[in-house]
């Protein structure tokens, strides 16, 4: 479990993280979202002892990172995959980390296999790695000590589509076995698929937190039909307000079963009927962080 309590970090009159409190629970994947510069990395850096808080605390399973005797066995960290020693080979990096944690070298090969880095690639210097390979190596390092907590800043960055799917399955399996996962990402679709809980930060402050279901409950239903106007009209006749979006989809707060029943009764064929969660997360993110968006997209 990760516990952040009243955490504040100031830089020369500027407050990067402002009285932030949240928890990331075991058995769950917690998505940490926010616009550029919102304070995600700073919060994560405090968690792993790289940044000193101005006030407040961040603890891993009840202890501050600095007080963990062998931190790699308790918490796996991937903050900046490009920060790895560029002159070393992937195998050397994992070997040094294994030695530091007191782990057998056999763990290195297990991790290389887990993240699908070949023996040839493992002998290459990290400066010659692609971004995705660095990311895989970073994940291998994070998992080396078989920790119960993972803190990952943009772990999907640079991964190819198969890599993203692999990462998703890996983190899901890890949480299902009782692990705690905190991950930041700008890939809202990824977060939508994988996260159980969400923490949204804007301008250093928490603007929303809770389960994904709670936060997206207001998302409603999205339906598509070859005749969307007729569908909107039929819904209106049934007392269900809806909006017709520019992309031809019909959105309503009613649940999908009700929308389907109205369409069936009106003889309107549907080509799609689902919870509007996907767009819901993006809408929610943009509206919650509207004040802090550079682009003012949701203003
Ligand atoms: N060492 C530092 N000195 C001064 N300001 C800093 C320092 N580190 C971070 N900041 C500022 O703190 C704010 C939060 O930065 P942070 O990296 O935590 O954001 P983020 O949410 O991770 O953003 P991104 O999505 O772009 O990675 C930014 O305005 C940043 O410039």
Automatic annotation (TrEMBL):
Keyword tags: ATP-binding, Nucleotide-binding, Transport
PROSITE patterns linked: ABC_TRANSPORTER_1, ABC_TRANSPORTER_2
GO molecular function, one term: ATP binding
Domain called ABC transporter: residue spans: 2-228
Domain of life: Bacteria
Keyword presence, Transport: yes
InterPro entries per the UniProt record, alphabetical: AAA+_ATPase, ABC_transporter-like_ATP-bd, ABC_transporter-like_CS, P-loop_NTPase
One Pfam family hit: ABC_tran
Family: Belongs to the ABC transporter superfamily.
UniProt-recorded name of the protein: ATP-binding cassette domain-containing protein
Taxonomic lineage: Bacteria, Bacillati, Actinomycetota, Actinomycetes, Propionibacteriales
């Amino acid at each position: 479990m990760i516990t952040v309590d009243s955490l504040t970090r100031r830089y020369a009159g500027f407050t990067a993280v402002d009285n932030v409190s949240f928890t990331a629970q075991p058995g769950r994947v917690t998505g940490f979202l926010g616009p550029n510069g919102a304070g995600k990395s700073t919060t994560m850096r405090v968690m792993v002892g790289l940044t000193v808080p101005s006030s407040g605390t961040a603890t891993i399973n009840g202890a501050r990172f600095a007080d963990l005797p062998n931190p790699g066995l308790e918490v796996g960290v991937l903050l900046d995959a490009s920060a790895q020693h560029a002159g070393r080979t992937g195998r050397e990096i994992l070997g040094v980390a294994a030695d530091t944690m007191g782990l057998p070298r056999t763990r290195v090969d297990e991790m290389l296999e887990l993240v699908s880095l070949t023996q040839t690639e493992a002998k290459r210097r990290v400066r010659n790695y692609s971004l995705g390979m660095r990311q895989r190596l970073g994940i291998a390092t994070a998992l080396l000590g078989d920790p119960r907590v993972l803190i990952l800043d943009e772990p999907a960055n640079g991964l190819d589509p198969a890599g993203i799917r692999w990462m998703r399955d890996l983190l899901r399996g890890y949480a299902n076995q009782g692990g705690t996962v905190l991950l930041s990402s700008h890939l809202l679709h990824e977060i939508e698929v994988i996260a159980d809980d969400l923490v949204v930060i804007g301008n250093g402050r928490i603007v929303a937190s809770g389960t994904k279901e709670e936060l997206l409950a207001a998302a409603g239903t999205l339906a598509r039909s070859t005749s969307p106007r007729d569908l909107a009209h039929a819904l209106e006749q049934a007392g269900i307000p809806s909006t017709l979006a520019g992309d031809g989809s019909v959105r309503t707060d009613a649940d999908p079963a009700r929308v389907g029943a109205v369409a069936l009764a009106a003889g309107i064929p549907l080509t799609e009927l689902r919870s509007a969660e996907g767009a819901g997360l993006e809408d929610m993110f943009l509206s919650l962080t509207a004040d802090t968006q550079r682009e003012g997209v949701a203003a």
